[in-house]
Amino acid sequence: MSVRSSVGSITGGRLLRGRGLREIVLIGVLYIFYCITRTFANGDLGPAQDRAGDLHSLERVLHLDWEHSINNFFVAHSWAAIPACYWYAAAHYTVTLFVLVWLWRKGPQHYAPARWALVVSCLLGLACYLLLPTAPPRMLSGYTDVLSQHANDGWWSTDASAPKGMGGLTNELAAFPSLHAGWALWVALVVRRSTRSYWARGLAWLHAVVTAVVVIGTGNHWILDVCAGWALVIVAMWLVDPWFADSRQLVKARRLEFNRRVAGTRAPAIESIPDEPVGLATSEEPPSSPKAEPRPPLAAEPLTTEALDAWAEPPRKRPFEC
Asked: What pTM does this model have?
């Protein structure tokens, strides 16, 4: 499809008519509600830093405290830091929106469950932001805010990834869980179930991996933030996406089949037969098996001396054979 025909289909009303227009309004309202509600979270930095410290302590126990090394790499290499800043500020929205439009064009069976999974994951993440404000690594000593360091190279301000002059509209303590990483995994999962193209699947998984590295390297999220964001999206898709329901049914069917096979291989129970009392005659005799007729004896052949030697030689040599 050419760019001209795509623009025509949109302006002609095929995308902006009826259900398409309702979807655009719904997503816009939900996103505005999400952004405004995030600002109602507790803004006390002290408790949020304490939670971040507890999170980092747990990472040390789990041997996952790699944030400092990754952050130092981005600080020391501007060739990686500047693209990472653009990725953090733009890919989170553009790639997700592009995939939503692509799913819409593929049909309701692809779009509807993916849309609801995204909505449920945002609501769960919003609940975490309101109940457990957590400071990102860049707000603790020893870590560098890479986006603030390269704020002159892009449109973002020194307040997270918000555009310049709009820093007050974002919640900088919304680090746990990372919906940057969560939405990127959502992209990988919905592309995985909606197309057989290995190129599309590979690019989607690459987007998820790069996003996870970027949010950690720029000092905006902990590794456990990324894990929590992934878990959040998996739970949301497990709740509303039929793809996961089909997988559960398949696992259940395979488990039942396995149990049935195991039960079928068991030996049947042997019932004990009571012994007949000795000395009591039975009225019926068991049927006797037909007796084999005796075979006629073979004719005896005279044994020669050579035959006797050949018959006696192997037993004498056998103990010494290798």
From this structure: 0.69
